[in-house]
Design goal:
By secondary structure, this protein is α/β, with parallel strands linked by helices. It has a single domain (14-143), classed as ATPase, nucleotide binding domain (Nucleotidyltransferase, domain 5). Helices cover 43% and strands 19% of the residues. It is built from five helices and five strands. The protein has a five-stranded mixed β-sheet. Helix 1 packs across helix 2 (59-67) and helix 1 (44-55) packs across helix 3 (72-94). The chain is elongated. The two termini are 21 Å apart. 31% of the residues are buried.
Length: 150
């Protein structure tokens, strides 16, 4: 059987931070192998809740605002404390891995233009964000699906 490339992002050494809806997951890679993982229950849903509270609107309306690119600057100024919390969590976890100099950030909740800069400010490390960070996780799952059944 012809297997897909071993790593979707091509990360041999560094960290991958997956900012999803409910969690922020961190994986540390060394020589192409995952050597540590951590999951924090803070993600895009928390951003939406903060936005809903600040605007005094429903969760659904806040989610729509969060996804509206025309409102990005205003929305990010409100949800920035959540991004800062994620940045502090990543920095604290990576303190035990001083050889990690590059962070690859993926997931829909990191789609904000200024999100990577927040990670840089908290970690002091280089941050790379793909053009479509929302698609990396589902694409990786699709590439590695072996047709098996649960």
């Amino acid at each position: 059987m012809n297997r897909p490339p071993r790593r979707l992002l091509g990360v041999e050494n560094g960290a991958v931070v997956d900012v999803g809806g409910g969690t922020t997951g961190i994986s540390v890679l060394k020589d192409g192998e995952v050597v540590a993982t951590f999951d924090e229950p803070t993600g895009g849903t928390h951003m939406t809740l903060v936005l809903a509270g600040a605007r005094k609107i429903s969760f659904e309306d806040a989610e729509a605002e969060k996804l509206n690119h025309a409102l990005e600057r205003d929305v990010f100024s409100i949800i920035r404390p959540v991004a800062d919390k994620m940045g502090r969590i990543v920095a604290e976890f990576l303190a035990d891995y001083p050889y990690v100099d590059t962070i690859h950030v993926v997931g829909g909740a990191c789609s904000f233009k200024d999100f990577a800069a927040v990670l840089v400010s908290h970690t002091g490390r280089r941050v790379i964000k793909p053009v479509e960070p929302l698609l990396v996780t589902p694409l990786g799952i699709a590439m590695y699906h072996d047709g098996g059944q649960a």
